[in-house]
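[Meeting: bench + compute handoff]

Bench side (C.D.) handed over the final construct sequence. Compute side (W.E.) agreed to return the predicted structure before the next meeting so the bench team could plan truncations. Sequence as handed over:
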Amino acid sequence: EAKGLMPRLLLDNLHLLIVQEIGKEISGSGMDPNITGRSASPHFHKPDALKTEKVVVLSLTPASKGNACGIGTADITTKRFVDSINADYTYVNAITSGILATARIPITMPTDREAIQLALKTCYRVRHPETRVVWIKNTRSLEKIFASEPLLQEIRKNSQVAILGDPQPMTFD
């Protein structure tokens, strides 16, 4: 019953999952592997897990106090994220858990835009007008997500999901 009540993304086979923030107060793993489908643990085997080609993480929550455990499951992050890491907190947590990969730093780009562009550029055999992208605040806040236009038909067929607005381009400041 608990498994059935667990939040999840109601979309699958994504090219790109963008996670705005990760943090220890969001999930002990920084970002919940039950949501992202990725774990640094070699023992995580979930056949029905989300399938996504690339994961970009943009920032670390202030409440994490620099503990960046979980970033090791992302493919790309930002300089802002890396600059917010407290290596002592992160390494102690990773060593204590026995899962060192959780603290690995992915390719780091200067800005959110460049991180997302790199992820899209490195997706395998993707025609970008057809790219399946989901942008979430974090793995605990899934009430509202942003989804790319190629996902709209699938979303419309799902009675559990409502479309709240028209498609818009990504904006960056």
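W.E. noted at the follow-up: The two ends are 43 Å apart (CA to CA). C.D. will use this when planning the next construct.
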